[in-house]
Write a structure and sequence with these properties.
Number of strands: 12
Strand order of the largest sheet: 1-2-3
Strand content: 5-15%
Shape: elongated
Bound molecules: glutamic acid
Structural class: mainly alpha
Length: 467
């Protein structure tokens, strides 16, 4: 049997990290078993679904590199098929028209609550025959009354639900549109999905879906329900805990592989290994090793992982992602050093691409002002002379390389009987605008001769104006 998994988001917002983890686990399972992974957009809720959200899901999947083998399929393209299946269930006697009014149902609910019973439909219309003229009706699935459904969950083990706990759920609304449980069942069946891997917030739907599949004579898929992701306070991870949208993590300077690595470890483990390449994830992934209980999102750990990927990843790959962030800052990377060199120079000190980008602007663009504290400390009386001498010496350099430049700084400190810091720091502030930068030889060689000389001259003028 060839394995088929699916990710089936509803396009009613951004791609949430919880959704991304579901997608990742489904993707990994398919890849590991040489199967197929489908993307299905569940857009039948016409009021809440938006094109913007569809685009955000597709963008998130692309950014994460979770390629799908089939799709994206759109449920709104399948309305005829859903109608056909609803008719089939009616014809078979597995579904029926229900004419109960909202008020009637509301009253039933109130009574049940008052009797401390679980609110459920009482099956009043279950044995009526045929549609009653033009009266508006919903269509309900005739859930079996006896016996039980066992979900052989690949993560949680067998879950047994008695059929008497399940009432007859609505599969078509009064206007004829199908409901979620019906559309999911039809598509999982038609698309020959073998493994339904999804959040355990869907666990209540599963026995109902299994009963509909059985009524349709379809083969049941295997189910795996993933525990939720929680915020640090133990509540389900949501916007109020900070970033939860996949694209927000991109905007905040994370690499997609760091986020994937973080998400794979969230609720899954392979020994005590923390860092997994995509190939290693595929190799080792097993649903049996997914935790049964929920796990909490830990931004510090994600940040640590991101730094590992920035430091140890292929600099050219990191540079490609950095390029987007430079663009966000209005920087044209061709107006300065290669981004690969920037990555090499900054990767030890910066944990995110946003930090690298922000710390590298001066390589491409003149800064507006000096950092006040740094200027006050380093642009002291006499520092203009130091800078003037550096300017003259640098101007003579024909081969602009770090080693030669470093030597000039060291020699000048010696000649002027100054500590190295008294020469290197004013120079650093002059060329970068602040007292923080990579080693001065690397900084100068990346900056290039022209920018270095112009900025030293600017600093000399600035210091002169102070006095
Ligand atoms: N569309 C559903 C959701 O976004 C998921 C359906 C499923 O995975 O069965 O929650």
């Amino acid at each position: 049997m060839s394995i088929k998994t699916r990710f089936a988001p509803s396009p009613t917002g951004y791609l949430h990290v919880g959704g991304a983890r579901t997608a990742l686990f489904s993707w990994l399972y398919a890849r590991k078993h040489g199967g197929k992974f489908i993307l299905r957009i569940e857009d039948t809720d016409l009021e809440r679904s938006t094109q913007e959200s569809v685009d955000a899901i597709l963008e998130g999947m692309t950014w994460l590199g979770l390629e799908y083998d089939e799709g994206p399929f759109y449920q709104t393209h399948h309305f005829d098929r859903y109608k056909e299946v609803i008719q089939q269930l009616l014809d078979q006697g597995d579904a029926y028209y229900c004419y109960c009014s909202k008020e009637e149902l509301e009253q039933l609910r109130t009574e049940q609550m008052a009797n401390k019973e679980k609110p459920r439909y009482n099956g009043k219309c279950r044995d009526l025959s045929g549609p009653k003229g033009d009266r508006e009706a919903v269509i309900r699935f005739k859930n079996p009354v006896d016996g039980a459904v066992t979900i052989p969950d690949l993560i949680k083990g067998d879950i047994v639900v008695a059929n008497k706990e399940l009432d007859d759920l609505i599969i078509a609304r009064g206007d004829g549109t199908p409901t979620y449980n019906l559309t999911v069942v039809v598509d999982d069946m038609d698309m020959k999905v073998t493994h339904v891997i999804r959040g355990d917030d869907h666990i209540n739907n599963t026995p109902r879906q299994m009963n509909i599949l059985k009524a349709l004579g379809a083969e049941l898929p295997k189910y795996a329900h993933l525990p939720m992701i929680l915020g640090p306070d133990g509540a389900r991870l949501s916007k109020r805990h900070g970033a939860v949208s996949v694209m927000q993590f991109r905007d905040d300077g994370y690499l997609p592989e760091a986020l994937l690595n973080y998400l794979v470890r969230l609720g899954w483990s392979h020994g005590d290994q923390e860092i997994f390449s995509i190939d290693e994830m595929v190799e080792h992934f097993a649903l049996e090793n997914v935790n049964v209980s929920a796990s909490a999102f830990n931004t510090e750990k994600l940040l640590w992982l991101n730094h590992q990927y920035i430091m140890n990843g292929d600099p050219a790959h990191v540079a490609r992602h950095l390029s987007w962030h430079m663009g966000e800052l209005g920087i044209d990377p061709s107006s300065g050093p290669s981004l690969v060199d920037i990555v090499m120079a900054q990767r030890e000190r910066c944990k995110t691409l946003v930090e690298i980008a922000a710390a590298s602007v001066y390589f491409y663009k003149d800064f507006d002002a000096y950092d006040e504290k740094a200027a006050k400390k380093n642009f002291t009386a006499g520092s203009d002379e130091v800078l003037a001498r550096l300017h003259d010496e640098f101007a003579e350099v024909t081969e602009w390389n770090g080693e030669a430049l470093h030597q000039i700084v060291v020699n000048l400190a010696e000649t002027m009987s100054l500590g190295l810091g008294k020469v290197a720091q004013p120079l650093r502030v002059a060329v970068c605008g602040s007292a923080v930068s990579p080693a001065i030889d690397i900084t100068l060689s990346l900056l290039g001769k022209e920018k270095t000389l112009a900025r030293i001259q600017r600093a000399i003028n600035h210091i002169k104006n102070l006095n």
